[in-house]
Amino acid sequence: MSETHKPTSSEDIVGQKYDRCLADFLVKAGVGFSVGVVASVVFFRRRTWPIALATGFGAGAAYADCDRSFNPARVPGTRIIPNLDELKAK
């Protein structure tokens, strides 16, 4: 019994990446919000800026991860090797 595998469309791949990015954003911003609330109550006499700061840090980390997922050239240590056919055409 051989199974035929249908190739995944590029729309599905982009959709999966967006879903992962959204889930990552919700988790990291939620953790940041939680840490901010705890820090606000314990250390800063119920000020609101620790909540906003920690939530922003979580959202920024999620944005950076999403950017790396859509643009792998931004991953530190990654080299982009040009196509030899493109070099010969120039």
TrEMBL record:
Which keywords does this Swiss-Prot/TrEMBL entry list? Membrane, Mitochondrion, Mitochondrion inner membrane, Transmembrane, Transmembrane helix
Q: Which domain of life is it from?
A: Eukaryota
| InterPro entries (UniProt xref) | Mic10
Q: Where in the cell is it found?
A: Mitochondrion inner membrane
State which residue ranges cross the membrane. Answer: 25-44
**Key word Transmembrane present:** yes
Membrane topology is:
Single-pass membrane protein
- Looking at the UniProt record for this protein, which Gene Ontology cellular component terms does it annotate, in alphabetical order? MICOS complex
Pfam families xref list = DUF543
Record text on subunit structure and interactions: Component of the mitochondrial contact site and cristae organizing system (MICOS) complex.
Q: Which family does it belong to?
A: Belongs to the MICOS complex subunit Mic10 family.
Q: Which PANTHER family match?
A: MICOS COMPLEX SUBUNIT MIC10
Reported function: Component of the MICOS complex, a large protein complex of the mitochondrial inner membrane that plays crucial roles in the maintenance of crista junctions, inner membrane architecture, and formation of contact sites to the outer membrane.
Protein's name according to its UniProt entry: MICOS complex subunit MIC10
Q: Which organism is it from?
A: Amanita muscaria (strain Koide BX008)
